[in-house]
Amino acid sequence: MSEGSQDKPAGNAGGAEKPAAKGSRSGGSRRRNRSTTQRREPAAAPAAETGAARSTTGAGASLWLALVALVLAIGVAVGGYFIWHEVNRQAAWQQEVLAQIDSRNAALDARLKSFDDRLQADLAATRRAQDALQQRLAAAESARKGLEQAITLLRAQLGRGRDDWVLAEAGYLLNVAHQRAALARDPATAILALQTADQRLQALADPGLKPVRDQIARDITALQAVQLPDIDGLTSRLEGLEAAVDGLKLAGAHYQPPAPQGPGEGGLPSDWKQVPGAVWDELRKLVVVRRNDQPVGPMLAPEQQYFLHENLRLQLAAARLALLRGEPAAWQGALQTARDWLQRHFDVEAPAVKATLDAVDDLMQVEVRPAIPDVSGSLRRLREVMRLRELAAEAPAGGAETGSAQP
After folding, report:
1. Domain span including residue 195
2. Quick one: 53 exposed, middle or buried, by C-beta within 10 A (0-12, 13-18, 19+)?
3. SS3 of 205, please?
4. Same domain for 356 and 233
């Protein structure tokens, strides 16, 4: 505004100078020119100043506009940055809030799951406690029933007389005899138990027990007829045979040809007529043909002889083990194998081999596991008698209860 007001007076001054210049034209040319020149110079100077001022004013306006545009651009950039930053901050805040919500939800889910697991564990523990309580109650009920049965049995036992106790003892002894005979194969102990039971029954002097005593006598006789092998004696015999194995002579181990006749044994010819016969006899002795009805075995090497002796010893040891175990099949098989080896590989004409073969044949006749008779018949007879006595004892009691109930 100030620049425009300054430009206008300058323009008015220029217009006033022009009429002044026209009035001065009536003077001389030189004077007019000089005055005109002098007047134009001051007028040209303000015009130049006005143009410079105008150019300066336009440049300043453009500069101001550029500054304003720059400031606006900077403001827009700063505002956009702040808006972008705020949007990002809000988005980050939203993400953080969502993450916190998710974490809280996860923690809540974990707590709910933990609470559910604890609840399920408590329920399972409660069920187990209930089951244990029921089992304890069932055990207590079973114990109560067992106690009632024991009391009932005790009452029955206390109500027994002396005869019942003796019969129970005899039944126990008969059961022991049956177990020793059937399971332990011990006839001696079974006979002792049967004899003791018979003595207990004899003390009762009850004619009703005669069938039981008769059966006990038959069982004792059957057990006494059992011939048990002498295990110790048989073992000693087998050990002796094993020790004598090395002295047994093998077939074909030693070849002994017949002793040849000496030159003087045939006698010298007393006459020249006997010389051809003597020469012929000597020629015949060069080739001798002998007849042998049995097959001739080949000569054996020393190591083969050792193995033959060891195999025979092993068979005798197997027979001894079968004897101790009470295995008849293994016993017979080992002895038969030893017998076959003796006949096949040993010299059966040797005295030691013959004695060994005889001993093996005797051992094969031994029964290492004889049959044990069944002695349970006496126990069954006694139980039948005891049951009949119990029925007879219950019958009067039942009749007395019926008679008491009728009035």
Report:
1. 160-227+373-397
2. middle
3. coil
4. yes
Q: In terms of domains, do 104 and 174 share one? A: no
Place of tokens 């953080």: 96
**Other Cβ atoms closer than 10 A to 262:** 7
Residue 198 lies in a domain: yes
Q: Average pLDDT in the 73-77 region?
A: 88
Residue 289 lies in a domain: no
Angle at which helix 29-158 crosses helix 2-23, to 10 degrees, equals: 170
Q: Does 99 map to a domain? A: yes
Q: Where a domain ends, among 88, 108, 129? A: 129
Calculate the CA 227 to chain-centre distance: 49
Q: How confident is the model at residue 16 (pLDDT cuts 50, 70, 90)?
A: very low
* 269: its two tokens: 């010819």
Q: Which of these, 315, 331, 319, lies nearest to 369 by C-alpha position?
A: 331
In the chain, the number of structural domains is: 3
Cα torsion 54, 60, 64, 69 to 10°: value is: 90
pLDDT, greater one: 46 or 323: 323
Instruction: Let me know whether 79 and 207 are in one domain.
Output: no
3-state secondary structure of 242: helix
Q: What is the pLDDT of the chain when averaged over all its residues?
A: 77
Query: Would you say residue 280 lies in a domain?
Result: no
Measured distance between the N- and C-terminal CA atoms of the chain, rounded to whole angstroms: 154
Q: Which residue has the higher pLDDT, 406 or 164?
A: 164
99 and 185 fall within a common domain: no
3-state helix, strand, coil in the chain (%, to 5): 80, 0, 20
Q: Which long-range contacts (CB under 8 A, 24 or more apart) does 349-358 make?
A: 350/248, 350/249, 352/244, 352/247, 352/248, 352/249, 353/248, 353/249, 356/241, 356/244, 356/248
Residue 194 scores a pLDDT above 90: yes
